[in-house]
C-alpha cells in the first residue's frame, strides 16, 4: 500500500494508480474504462516482469539505478512471477492492469526503489513490449502444435496412399482420388500456414520498449541493450510508429492464425461430410462423440462442428482489431486496450483447435471397402477421354464422345488408376519426401528460435 495524501475526502491510504492525481475517479467511469483488463492482463504478467527486468538492467547500465537497486527489483519481479505461476498474484480492479499491480507490489515490498522502475517508460510501451513477447512465445507454440498435426496427417496419408476414394467438385463425384491425396492436401495447406505464421512472427519480432508514450524521453535509454536482453530481432526504430503499429501487427498475427483455422475448418467440414452414413468413408471411436438429449441413437462429431465455428470466431477477432484501429489518429488511443482480448483469444482458440484435431485424427478409422466401392464408373470418364487423346483423337472430340457414352462406362480398377498417375503431386506421386523435408526445416527453425528465446528470457528472472 502507498500513502496518497490529498486534501478533501480522499485523504486516506489507497492503492496507487500510476497516473494518480488529487481526486477520486467516479466508480462507474473506473469500471467502464478498466473493463476486463484485470482478468485479461493475467496473460501478460510474466512477460511484463521479464520486460521490466530488462528495463531495470538497462537503467542500471546508464546509472539511473544502482546495481543493488536493480538486484532488489529483479528479486521482486521474480517473486511476482513465482506467485503468478501459482495463480496467487492478484490484479485488483483499482490496479486497472498488470503494470500498476506489479509496480504497487514492488513499492510495497522494497519501498522507494519500486517507484524507480517506471523511469523512462510509459504504460504505452510497457503493454506493447509485454504483448510482443507474449505473441512471440505464442506463435512458437502455434507453429509447434501445427507441426504435430501435420505429422499426423502425413502419417495417415502415407498409410492410406493406395486407398482410392471419389474426388468431388461442385459437391458431385468428379474423378478418382485417394485417401492419401486427401490428407496430404490438408497437410500441405497447414505447411503454407506455418509460412504465413513465420512471416507474422518476423514482423512482431521488434522491440518497442523505450518508445515511452510514443515520443521518446530525454533519458539516454539503451534500446539496443533491451533488444538484446529480450531476444528481439531488432529495435522498432520510430517511437511514434511503435504506437501506430498497434493493431497493424496484431491483425497481421490474427490473420495468420485465421488462415490456419480456416484450413482446420475445411478439414473438419470434409471429415463431417465423409463420416455421414451416406458415405461412411471415415469413423471415430464413440469416446470422441457426444449425444442428443432426445434422440437415443445419436453419436455426434461435435468436435468438428465446433472447429468450423471457432474459425468464424477468429474472423470476428480479425474484423474487430481492424475496425477498432483503422481510422485512429497517430499516437496512443485508448481503443488499443480493447485489442488485447482479441489477440489472446485467437491464440487460445487456434492452439486448442490444432491440439484437439490432432488428438481425434490419430484415432480415425478409414473404411477402405466403402471408399473403394464408391469409385463408380463415371469417375473414370475423364481418364477415358484422355486415353482417346493418347490414341490420336482431338481432346474436344474425345470429350464429346465420352459425354455421350457415360452410361456405357464399365468398372475399372481404382487402385491401379490412382497409382498410375505419377506426375508431381498426383495420386501416385504425393511427394512425401518433399513435405517431410519442409516439416524438418520448420522444426529445426523453431527449435533454434525457442532455445535462443528461452535462454534470453530465462536470464532475466533467474
Describe the structure.
With 462 residues, the protein is mainly alpha-helical. It has three domains: 112 residues, Orthogonal Bundle (Fumarase C, Chain B, domain 1); 269 residues, Fumarase/aspartase (Central domain) (Fumarase C, Chain A, domain 2), CATH 1.20.200; 38 residues, no CATH class. Helix content is 59%, strand content 5%. It contains 17 helices and six strands. The strands form three sheets. A two-stranded antiparallel sheet has the order 1-2. Strand 3, helix 8 and strand 4 form a beta-alpha-beta unit. Helix 4 packs across helix 5, helix 7 runs antiparallel to helix 10 and helix 11 packs antiparallel against helix 12. The longest helix is centred in the N-terminal third of the chain and has 37 residues. It is elongated. The N terminus is likely disordered.
TL;DR?
The chain has helices spanning 27-34, 37-40, 45-61, 67-85, 98-110, 123-159, 179-204, 223-230, 239-244, 248-274, 302-325, 339-361, 368-373, 381-390, 395-404, 414-419, 432-460, and strands spanning 164-169, 172-178, 206-207, 234-235, 282-283, 365-366.
Amino acid at each position: 500500500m502507498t500513502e496518497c495524501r490529498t486534501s478533501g475526502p480522499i485523504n486516506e491510504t489507497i492503492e496507487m494508480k500510476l497516473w494518480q492525481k488529487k481526486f477520486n475517479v467516479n466508480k462507474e467511469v473506473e469500471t467502464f474504462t478498466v473493463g476486463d483488463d484485470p482478468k485479461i492482463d493475467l496473460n501478460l504478467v510474466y512477460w511484463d516482469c521479464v520486460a521490466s527486468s530488462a528495463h531495470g538492467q538497462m537503467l542500471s547500465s546508464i546509472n539511473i539505478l544502482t546495481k543493488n537497486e536493480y538486484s532488489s527489483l529483479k528479486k521482486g519481479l521474480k517473486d511476482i512471477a513465482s506467485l503468478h505461476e501459482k495463480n496467487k498474484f492478484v490484479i485488483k480492479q483499482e490496479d486497472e492492469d498488470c503494470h500498476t499491480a506489479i509496480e504497487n507490489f514492488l513499492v510495497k515490498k522494497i519501498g522507494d526503489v519500486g517507484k524507480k522502475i517506471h523511469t523512462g517508460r510509459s504504460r504505452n510501451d510497457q503493454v506493447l513490449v509485454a504483448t510482443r513477447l507474449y505473441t512471440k512465445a505464442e506463435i512458437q507454440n502455434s507453429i509447434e502444435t501445427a507441426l504435430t498435426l501435420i505429422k499426423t496427417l502425413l502419417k495417415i496419408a502415407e498409410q492410406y496412399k493406395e486407398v482410392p476414394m471419389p474426388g468431388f467438385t461442385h459437391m458431385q463425384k468428379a474423378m478418382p482420388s485417394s485417401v492419401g491425396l486427401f490428407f496430404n492436401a490438408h497437410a500441405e495447406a497447414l505447411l503454407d500456414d506455418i509460412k504465413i505464421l513465420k512471416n507474422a512472427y518476423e514482423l512482431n519480432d521488434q522491440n518497442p520498449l523505450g518508445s515511452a508514450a510514443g515520443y521518446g524521453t530525454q533519458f539516454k535509454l539503451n534500446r539496443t541493450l533491451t533488444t538484446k536482453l529480450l531476444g528481439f530481432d531488432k529495435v522498432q526504430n520510430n517511437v511514434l510508429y511503435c504506437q501506430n503499429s498497434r493493431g497493424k501487427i496484431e491483425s497481421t498475427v490474427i490473420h495468420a492464425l485465421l488462415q490456419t483455422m480456416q484450413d482446420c475448418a475445411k478439414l473438419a467440414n470434409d471429415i463431417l461430410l465423409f463420416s455421414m452414413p451416406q458415405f461412411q468413408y471415415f469413423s471415430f471411436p464413440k469416446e470422441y462423440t457426444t449425444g442428443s438429449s432426445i434422440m437415443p441413437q445419436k453419436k455426434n462429431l461435435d468436435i468438428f462442428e465446433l472447429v468450423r465455428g471457432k474459425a468464424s470466431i477468429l474472423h470476428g477477432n480479425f474484423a474487430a482489431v481492424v475496425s477498432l484501429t483503422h481510422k485512429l489518429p497517430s499516437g496512443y488511443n485508448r481503443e488499443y486496450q480493447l485489442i488485447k482480448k482479441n489477440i489472446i483469444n485467437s491464440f487460445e482458440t487456434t492452439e486448442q483447435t490444432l491440439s484437439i484435431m490432432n488428438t481425434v485424427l490419430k484415432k480415425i478409422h478409414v473404411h477402405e471397402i466403402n471408399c473403394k466401392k464408391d469409385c463408380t464408373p463415371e469417375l473414370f470418364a475423364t481418364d477415358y477421354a484422355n486415353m482417346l487423346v493418347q490414341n490420336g483423337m482431338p481432346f474436344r472430340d474425345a470429350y464429346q464422345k465420352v459425354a455421350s457414352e457415360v452410361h456405357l462406362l464399365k468398372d475399372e480398377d481404382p487402385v491401379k488408376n490412382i497409382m498410375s498417375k505419377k506426375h508431381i503431386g498426383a495420386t501416385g506421386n504425393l511427394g512425401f519426401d518433399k513435405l517431410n523435408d519442409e516439416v524438418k526445416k520448420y522444426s529445426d527453425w523453431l527449435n533454434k528460435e525457442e532455445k535462443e528465446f528461452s535462454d534470453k528470457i530465462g536470464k532475466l528472472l533467474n
